[in-house]
Amino acid sequence: MNNYDISPKETETDEEIINRIRIKSESDKANSIDEIRKVREEQDKEYQHILSELQDSDENEHTTAKILPPEPEDGIIVMVNLPNGKRLSRKFGFDTTGEDLRYFLSIELDIKKDFAVKHTTGETIQNDLKLVDQQFHKRTLVSVFY
């Protein structure tokens, strides 16, 4: 007898037909519950995997986080034009690198996405070079681009 065939058989009584339909219904219900459980288990595994990756990422950020030194007495005043039209200003030491400037901006502006910092000359600020080696003078204007 095929589980999916619920049409009455010539020799079946009404009670046998009702019983066969009930068994089929319970079987379908059990299969649906099993499928839902499987999907939920897969979703839970994926959630745990993503959560683990995020926790690893957070731990890496905390262990590699730099501490920005206080503004020096003498240094380079960097004024930053922001995409929203506002301006930000901070004094940096002469040994500050482009990476330090980007770090300051990412913290100060809470930037999570990739961004570029460009000098008024149009040149993109290089992370590995000191600002003084990238045409930064006593007062320098740069712009942030998303």
Could you state the CATH homologous superfamily of the largest domain? Phosphatidylinositol 3-kinase Catalytic Subunit, Chain A, domain 1
Rounded mean pLDDT is 83
Proportion in β-strands: 15-25%
* Highest-level CATH class of the largest domain: Alpha Beta
How many distinct folded domains?
2
**Could you tell me how far the N terminus lies from the C terminus, measured between alpha carbons in angstroms?**
66 Å
CA-atom Rg in angstroms:
33 Å
Side by side, the strands of the main sheet go 2-1-4-3
Relevant terms:
146 residues; alpha+beta; Ubiquitin-like (UB roll); 2 domains; four-stranded mixed beta sheet; 2 helices; 4 strands
3D structure, described in words:
The chain has helices spanning 14-64, 98-108; strands spanning 76-81, 87-92, 116-119, 139-145. With 146 residues, the protein is of the alpha+beta class. The chain has 2 domains: 1-65, no CATH class; 76-145, Phosphatidylinositol 3-kinase Catalytic Subunit, Chain A, domain 1 (Ubiquitin-like (UB roll), Roll). A hairpin with a 5-residue loop joins β1 and β2 (87-92). The longest helix is centred in the N-terminal third of the chain and has 51 residues, at 14-64. The mean pLDDT is 83.
Topology (elements, then pairings):
Layout: H1 14-64, E1 76-81, E2 87-92, H2 98-108, E3 116-119, E4 139-145
Parallel strand pairs: 1-4
Antiparallel strand pairs: 1-2, 3-4
